[in-house]
Backbone:
């Protein structure tokens, strides 16, 4: 199992925000506006919900076409992407707040 390092999280966050900037260009071009925070939240929760279905498929309970494990990997990565994007939109420093949450949990 590969452990994500602090620099790895920072790099992932930077990449997520770069991709989001490209998404916003397309959203503006095709929709005349960028997604609102509420629309982003719906996208995020949709992806998280689909992770549940993929886990059921992984356990053989929910039939899907394709590889459930590959789907879970993809949707987990996409959910992490959403976390970075939403944190940025809310002016949350996810590195600091994650560290504080971990400290409070222990």
Residues:
């Amino acid at each position: 199992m590969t452990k994500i390092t602090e620099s790895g999280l920072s790099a992932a966050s930077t990449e997520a925000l770069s991709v989001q900037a490209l998404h916003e260009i397309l959203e503006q071009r095709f929709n005349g506006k960028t997604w609102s925070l509420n629309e982003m939240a719906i996208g995020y929760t949709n992806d998280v919900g689909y992770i549940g279905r993929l886990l059921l498929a992984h356990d053989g309970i929910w039939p899907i076409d394709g590889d459930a494990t590959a789907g879970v990997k993809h949707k987990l990565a996409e959910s992490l992407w959403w976390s970075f994007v939403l944190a940025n939109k809310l002016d949350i420093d996810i590195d600091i707040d994650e560290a504080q949450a971990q400290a409070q949990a222990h």
